[in-house]
Design goal:
Strand 3, helix 5 and strand 4 form a beta-alpha-beta unit. This protein has 12 helices and 10 strands. It has a 4-stranded antiparallel β-sheet. A two-stranded antiparallel ribbon has the order 1-2. It has a two-stranded parallel ribbon with strand order 3-4. It is an alpha+beta fold.
Length: 315
């Protein structure tokens, strides 16, 4: 399953969940085939609307981006006004609803965008920012996944206030390099600029499961939508990569990665599937459950006209 509607989520259905599990949670579930051509067309239209207001657009996915409207093209002084205009135009031109978050840094704007989904607007001002972060459960923080949430909860960290009360040394001890990120976002500090020209070193997708995965078949099913997501991102931006990396995190939080680099740019989604299968198969049978799986593509570059016609798999 590639995605779950808001209605399905009420039954515990999540993105990338095996269809058998999803059907068990919601017997009346209806499966709808994807229409990626339509998704891409809508995404291009939405990004055109973004570009009417600012050239500083940092895409995150087909339907999500950061916009810096500090100095916008229409000279509108209030960011909230721009957000409302964008939402209205998306609705008028695509018939799609859109949620927006307005704030003074990336971290808070991302949190704000999640507050009133699927069709809303939320604003976090500098005055309300610290209190907003303090009261929020850490599981709601962008960048804190289910597994990290569980670990934080076990350490007595339930909310942003609890996270802020921890020292930098404590967070780095328990979360490694990510500790510094958690330390600063708990203080609503995020100085990352919106970078329209950022060069990605890799493209990846991962999912943490509500139930541990033990079989090869279930792992393959969970990886399929992640591979699809990575490939669509590359297709939409005409980029290709040479190195496929699979990430595995077990129930005891042990994490491993397995990688393979092809002789040339990978030109078809099927090649990624083949490589991931070759990386996955040797891990089974497993002695402990798998909590998370991820796939990434690196060694990125622009695609050539004949990239899709060349098969370069050396296993």
């Amino acid at each position: 399953m590639a995605a779950a509607s808001y209605e399905a989520r009420k039954f515990g259905v999540r993105s990338a969940m095996p269809s058998v599990t999803a059907k068990r949670k919601c017997p009346d579930l209806i499966f709808v085939p994807h229409r990626f051509d339509a998704y891409r067309a809508d995404s291009q239209q939405i990004h055109k609307i973004f570009a009417e207001h600012t050239p500083l657009i940092e895409p995150l996915s087909l339907d999500e981006a950061y916009l810096d409207v500090t100095e916008n093209l229409q000279g509108i002084p209030v960011a909230t006004t721009i957000a409302e205009m964008i939402r209205m135009k998306i609705k008028a031109e695509t018939s799609l609803t859109a949620s927006a978050g307005v704030s003074y840094n990336k971290f808070l704007s991302k949190l704000a965008s999640d507050q009133n989904k699927p069709d809303g607007l939320f604003v976090t001002t500098p005055k309300m920012g610290p209190a907003f972060v303090e009261e929020l459960p850490v599981g709601k923080f962008h960048g804190v996944g289910p597994a990290t949430t569980t670990k934080m909860n076990q350490l007595g960290i339930e909310t942003g206030r609890d996270l802020r009360d921890q020292s930098l040394a404590f967070l780095q001890q328990h979360f490694g390099k990510a500790g510094a990120f958690y330390y600063w976002i708990a203080r609503d500090v995020d100085e990352r600029p919106v970078r329209a020209d950022r060069i990605r070193k890799s493209v990846g997708a991962e999912d943490t499961f509500s139930e541990d995965v033990f079989t090869l078949e279930a792992a393959r099913a969970a990886l399929e939508p992640l591979i699809e997501k990575v490939w669509r991102y590359c297709e939409d931006r005409s980029i290709r990569g040479r190195t496929v990396t699979m990430k595995v995190k077990y129930a005891d939080f042990q994490q491993i990665t397995r990688s393979h680099t092809a002789l040339g740019p990978i030109g078809k989604q099927g090649e990624i599937n083949h490589l991931v299968d070759a990386l996955l198969d040797p891990l089974f049978p497993v002695g402990k459950g798998i909590r998370l799986l991820g796939v990434s593509l690196s060694s990125l570059g622009e695609s050539s006209p004949d990239a899709g016609d060349q098969l370069r798999l050396q296993i």
